[in-house]
Amino acid sequence: MGLLAGVTLVVALFVSIRSPTRRFWAHGERDWTFWVSWTAWLVYFGSLLGVSYLDWWSWYLPSTLIQGISLMLVLAGAVFATWAVWRLGFWESSGLEGHLNTEGPYRYSRNPQYVGYVAMLGGGAALAGSLMTSVLALVGIVWFLLAPLAEEPWLREQYGDAYEEYRKLVPRFLGRTHRESSRQGKTDRSKGEDS
Fold first, then answer.
1. For the packed helices 131-169 and 2-18, what is the interaxial angle rounded to 10 degrees?
2. Residue 93: count of CB within 10 angstroms of its CB
3. Contact 155/163 with Cβ under 8 angstroms?
4. Among 66, 95, 96, 153, which has the highest number of CB atoms less than 10 A from its own CB?
5. What fold is seen in the domain 2-194?
6. What is the C-alpha separation between 103 and 101, in angstroms, rounded?
7. Helix pair angle (131-169, 179-194), 10° resolution
8. What's the rounded mean pLDDT across residues 182-189?
9. Which residue has the higher pLDDT, 89 or 10?
10. SS3 for the chain, per residue?
């Protein structure tokens, strides 16, 4: 069930990437895609937790070091994702329309929730030591890595130039922000205009 729900989400995401007019993600409003998507997510995460519990350490027994690193990844990912959801708001995090948020964790990543979820899934899969859990986690990781490709055209439609400027300044996932170079460019342009 979990694998079917996860694959459904990934296929729907590919449809959204290929054809923005048939967008499945981001929803923008509470239409049928919203309800189908969130039902699939509930089935996926419920199955992931159930499989992890039932298949714990069936594939391999992670060393104490791997367990510690994995647990730190899960906790750090949970904190980062929760901070991002709190900052953006639950409904906007669910793919509904809202406002462009560039503060808090969104100063460091355009998709801090996805960064947190990928860390949680990767760390959780390593900690579980289960092949079935790893396969399910991989499906989720693929979704979170590809989701910005479906979201970004929608965000451009919603926020226009403000989003484009933000996109130039902040990396998609993690990396160095470009605020200084943008300010420098503005200073250089203004100097040129004065000359």
1. 30
2. 15
3. yes
4. 95
5. Four Helix Bundle (Hemerythrin (Met), subunit A) (1.20.120)
6. 6
7. 20
8. 42
9. 10
10. CHHHHHHHHHHHHHHHHHCHHHCCCCCECCCHHHHHHHHHHHHHHHHHHHHHHHCCCCCCCCCHHHHHHHHHHHHHHHHHHHHHHHHHCHHHHCCECCCCCCCHHHHCCCCHHHHHHHHHHHHHHHHHCCHHHHHHHHHHHHHHHHHHHHHHHHHHHHHHHHHHHHHHHCCCCCCCCCHHHHHHHHHHHHHHHHC
- 186 pLDDT higher than 50: no
Higher-confidence residue of 175 and 13: namely 13
Domain positions in the chain are 2-194
Q: 149: which residues sit within 8 A by CB, 6+ positions away? A: 17
